[in-house]
Amino acid sequence: MNRNSHLAFLILFVTMFQLSGNSFARPSLAEIRTGIDLSISEKYEEAIKHFTTLKTSYPLSPAGSFFLAALWQSMMMDFETKEWEANFYDEINNAIESARHALKKNKSDANLQFFYGGALAYKSFQLARDKKYPAAIRTAIISIKELKKVNKIDSTFCDSYLGIGSYQYWRSRLTKKFSWLPFFPDRRKEGLDKIERVSECGIYSKWAALSNLAWIYIEEKNYRKAIECARAGLDRFPDSRFFLWPLGDAQFRNGDYENASQTYHKILDSVVSQSFNNHYNEILLHYKLGQCYAKMEKYQAAKIECEKAIALKAAEEVAKRAHKKKKAAVKLLARINKKVTSN
Length: 343
Description:
By secondary structure, this protein is mainly alpha-helical. It has a domain at 5-237: Serine Threonine Protein Phosphatase 5, Tetratricopeptide repeat, CATH 1.25.40.10. The chain contains 15 helices and no strands. It has helices at residues 29-40, 44-57, 63-79, 85-105, 110-129, 133-153, 161-174, 188-201, 206-219, 223-236, 241-253, 257-272, 280-295, 299-311, 319-342. Helix 12 (257-272) packs antiparallel against helix 13 (280-295).
């Protein structure tokens, strides 16, 4: 699953907090949406304070822990780090137990059921990132089972299809070589249709659906549609890296190297301005810029970007991954030098 597909679970579960006669107080939709907007805008410190306040103000509701967990995971994905892994597991486990307890007294509450399935989905995704694949698969299967219960309670719950559709698409994408077997049916089209439906009828999860769709369309080589989704997200959140990354990659793969380079520069400016920087994204972006300039035959600019990528020292946690990108930059630099010499 791509770096931003975790966003498909962030805005999705907002609808759980509509007042439905439960026995405990819960945050208003306005309060939840404020925190989510802060998260997508990468105003992380403000978002942490906001969701921590919700957790304190509504101690019986799983909302605070759930959205704090979502936020920690978003930050880890954004910065390519495991820095806040313990924070994530503490909050997501608390959210799961809180939702499970609340469901014992509110079995027909679609919102709580949705919340429970969503928390399990978050945990499954993180387990996969941590390469704990058996546990990740078991948790994912349970989460989809729980999410499907939502529509049995309330068939009009349009937003519920985002989590299910994302799972269907990405699972099929990973196992497409075995789709001829009865155990691995190709459900990419089915999953994509569900996510597209949410992008049209989802009241709260439209942006999550658009972010996920952008990456899916890149996988499907439909770069025009990927760019449309990314730009729609940027119209609402102009500087969000959740939409800038797929925009840049779609532009590059579509052969629009000029605009891709401008998008990558915007992301780079954003990355280096952050207080946390292990330099992986910085190295990656300089390499991508080197590729753009090489494609445009701006060889001097390409050389500068490659040299910057090679010179940067990454933090220990991403050293191996960064080394691969730096090695690619070295090869690109050699090809550029050979090209310049031959000319």
